[in-house]
Amino acid sequence: MLITDEVHQVDGVKGAHVYLVASQEPFLVDTGMPGQERRIIEYIRSVGLNPRHLTGIILTHFDLDHIGSVQNLASALQCPVYAQEAEIPYIRGQKPRPGMKRFLPHLVSPIYGSLRAPEEVRPCAEMFHDWEVLPTPGHTPGHIVLYRNGIAIVGDLLQGGRIRPAPPYLTWNSGQLKESIRQLISRPLRWILPGHGPATPASNHWLDRLERTL
Q1: Which residues, 6 or more positions from 52, have their beta carbon under 8 angstroms from its beta carbon?
Q2: pLDDT tens across 54-97, in order?
Q3: What's the CATH code of the domain at 147?
Q4: How many domains does the chain have?
Q5: Bridge partners, 132 (sequence order)
């Protein structure tokens, strides 16, 4: 589903939303649960792109429902994987996920299949093509948001629809999460593209309400 400015939400993916930026240098943001690679590749083809032309996969953070299909996709498409440096040990399985998150791969594997950790994850820079990579720690230590021209692909920093922060019980540091949200909403915003919930046009009404809740 095309949302705005060459950004698509890939239809039918289980887990967190996957976004396809179908620009001259196309790339994916996040990969959903394990076992979603075929659906993602089919969607890329359906919008007229050659999946082998993808320039990379960038991960907003290490949660299973965002990274589940990354290794299978990276292998199939022969493209690199990027994340913020603090997230990489968790994504590659070198550090245990904190709290209840460490048990999720075992709980979901009977339904979706096993998580394959990516063989290589490259640290992302301050820019990814023509998108800013904004450090937004809080939900996880190295969470990022991608921002361009008022569009923010926010991972789990915010949930869509009735815009609100990620739940505290799934958040690594609530104080940092709130500060990251303040930094984001201080920028001009046209669209919030979350990992969960619908893509949401920015409005002064919900921005004001969100700022009051912080």
Answers
A1: 77, 78
A2: 999 999 999 999 999 999 999 999 999 999 999 999 999 898 88
A3: 3.60.15.10
A4: 1
A5: 127, 147
Contact 57, 73 (CB under 8 A): yes
Domain limits for position 105 = 2-213
Q: Locate tokens 């949401």: which residue?
A: 200
Q: What is the C-alpha separation between 200 and 207, in angstroms, rounded?
A: 11
200 phi/psi in degrees, rounded to 5: -130, 120
Contacts of 8 (CB under 8 A, 6+ apart): 1, 2, 19, 20, 21, 22, 43, 47
- pTM > 0.90: yes
Q: Which pair of structure tokens corresponds to residue 134?
A: 């904004």
DSSP state for residue 168 in the 8-state scheme: G
Contact of 81 with 118, CB cutoff 8 Å: yes
Q: In whole angstroms, what is the distance from residue 32 CA to residue 198 CA?
A: 15
